Amino acid sequence: MTDTAKKRQIAIIGGGILGVTLAYKLAGRGLNVTVYERGDNLGGLAAAMDYDGARVDRFYHTILSSDTSMQGLMEESGVADKRHFTATKQGFYDNGHLYDFNTPVDLMRFPPLNIIQRVRLGLQIVYAQLESDWRKMDVVPVEDWLAKFWGRGVYQKVWKPLLRAKFDSTAESVPATYIWSRLRRMMGTREGVTSKEMMCYIENGYYTLIEALARKAEGLGVQFHLKAPIEEVVIENGQAAGVRVGGEVRRYDAVISTLPSPTLGGLIPSAPADFRALLNKQQYLGVMCPLLILKKRLLPYYVLNITDESIPFTAVVETTNLIDPQHVKGYHLVYLPKYLAPDNPIANWSDEQVQAEWMKHFKRMFPDYNVSDIAAFIVQKAKYVEPIRPMGTLDEIPEIQTPVARLYMGNTVMIYPDLGNGEAVTRYSAKVIDRVMADMVGWA
């Protein structure tokens, strides 16, 4: 820690997992850090909610045994004793039937595909692990890549509905990197010849980690301001000089934004017009993600993938097949997500309309499940979830150091081709910190 670092005042906009991680690590380098969060609590998409005295995640999150950054933060923040590893299972819902899809044996028995298609699917999963040059896949449509290696039959039966589910109407512009990244991430957590998928959860939800990191950061002098929306990033002579909040200008040596690109674009009216246009151009998938709180278990799977395109939700995610129900007062938690393109009208549906439509299909899928065992149906939604990165647009990814001196940014747009999960985001924090610390040497 240097005397120069002690004098530096840094403002971080956004109190999600990236903002909190940056605050903790920058404070550890000796900087004076202040975090501004517009919400009532920290966490962003990783925030929690209370139900009947149990704290549960608003949205489901995946932490893998191979997520070294997240595992390290758990150790540093002191919540490793609340971490539990579990072997999970997944399945497919096809034509009214449920099928296991976990081991090579399950794959070779998978009825929706013929034997040749099953072999091709298995070979392509292996190929994805061996392919390391993601840039050449950035200009290849995901449909072409999947159909080439898996065949049109596998694509139509398995991948097309999954792409529709994940990317909504934007699926045709998606590059092959998205599937490549997902296959590599998920296969990286399988252990041994049994191919068991190892995931972990933290007692009382993902927010437990954020809460612990925030406490550690506060111990290092970080100040967190909640219900404090930034009105403007103050720019003077082409340099970020502070932020305006509550009508008051607060001055800082540097400002780091962790906000979605369009949100930042609206806060910097004095920045170069072409940079603001770049930020405002970036589109995101949103999500409609009802949470069913059940009195009894629904499925044996953590994730049930759905190939039926008439069903609005993309999957059935029963997180209490990962989380021990004892940590959520014996309830069973089921998320029914639907990813939404920017123009999808479902984003504007009322909670009542969502519940009526979702439950209609839920009852069709699970006719034997007693609806009296559904304790609650809670609609959760978010606007900015997954950046839409069309093919051949790498030049539209912003740099950490923006065209405005001492204004830095980090968000899920910038971690491509990695996926927008806690592991990739917290790992990216190191790049932001390295850039800020390197530049600081030359600050007047």
Q: Strands, helices and their partners?
A:
Elements: H1 3-7, E1 9-13, H2 17-28, E2 32-36, E3 48-51, E4 54-57, E5 63-64, H3 68-77, E6 83-88, E7 90-94, E8 97-100, H4 104-108, H5 115-130, H6 142-150, H7 152-167, H8 177-187, E9 190-191, E10 196-202, H9 207-219, E11 223-225, E12 230-236, E13 239-245, E14 248-251, E15 254-257, H10 261-265, H11 273-281, E16 284-288, E17 291-294, E18 303-306, E19 315-318, E20 332-335, E21 338-340, H12 351-365, E22 374-378, E23 381-387, E24 407-409, H13 422-440
Helix pairs in contact: 2-9, 2-13, 3-9, 6-7
In short:
This protein folds into 3 domains: 184 residues, FAD/NAD(P)-binding domain (3-Layer(bba) Sandwich); 98 residues, Orthogonal Bundle (Guanine Nucleotide Dissociation Inhibitor, domain 1), CATH 1.10.405; 102 residues, Polyamine Oxidase, Chain A, domain 2. Helix content is 33%, strand content 24%.
